[in-house]
Amino acid sequence: MQRLLLAGLLCMSSVLAHADLLDKIKARGTLIAGVSADVPPFGQRNKNQTVSGYDVDFAAAIAKKLGVKLLVQDVDPAERIPSVKSGKVDVIVAAFTKTPEREREVACSIGYFVASQKALSKKGRYPTSESLSRARIAVSRGTTGEDLSRKLYPKANVVAYADVSDAVKSLEQGAVDVVMDDEPTLAGALNSMIAKSHYELSSFSNATEILSVAVKLNEKRLLNLVNETLLETEKSGEAELIFNRWFGPQTNTPFLRTFRIQG
Question: What's the pLDDT score for residue 191?
Fold first, then answer.
C-alpha cells in the first residue's frame, strides 16, 4: 500500500512539474491579461474603475476560448515584457508591437491590428519626417515609438514618459514639440485635447506596425490557442465587430480597417 501511495505521489508530482501555463490557467480558472489602461481606445479606464477597450475585448475572447474568467491588470508600457516573463500576467494584450528584438524575449501571436507610426504636433510645424531631426520628441517609455525615434533622429531630444497621456500633456504645456506613437493611439489622444483644432497627425508615417499578443517563451500550447482564437474571431466576424466598436465612424477615433487577421 505504501509503495502504491508513493508511486501515486510521484506520478502526481511529475504531472505538476510538466504542467504548462495553459494547464495552470485552466486550473486557476482565471486568465490574467496585462493591458494598457491609459492608451484609448485599446485600453481605457471607466468611471466604475473597470478597464475596457479594443485589447480588453480580445483578451475576453481568449478567456472565453479557455473557458475561464478574465482578470485585467494595468501594465505600464515599459513593464509589458517583464510582466509576462516574470509570470505576473499570463498574456500581454496591450497595443504590443511585434518586432524581431522582442521575439527574442517573448513569444508573439499573429497580428490582430495593423497601424502606422506617426507624429502629433501643432498644425503645419512638421510637414516631413526629416523636419523632426532636431525636435523635442515625446514618447512612451519602452515602446517601439521610443526605439524608432532614437534610431531615426539621433540629434533630436527624445523624452520618455510613463504613457502617452503624460506625453500629450507635455506637448500641450509646450515642454516638447511632438509626440510619436501609433496612429490610432495618437488619434484618441488628439480627440481628448482641449485645443485639438490647433494640432494634427502627420501625413507621413515612419513605420507600419503589427500588434500582437505576447506570452512567455516556450508556452507553445497557450500561443497556439491565442492564434486559434484570433483566427476564429476573424472568421466569425467578431473581430470586425470589435474593431467597429472602438474605431468605427461613430466613435471618437474613426479609423479605416484595411487589414484582416490571418496566419
Answer: 87
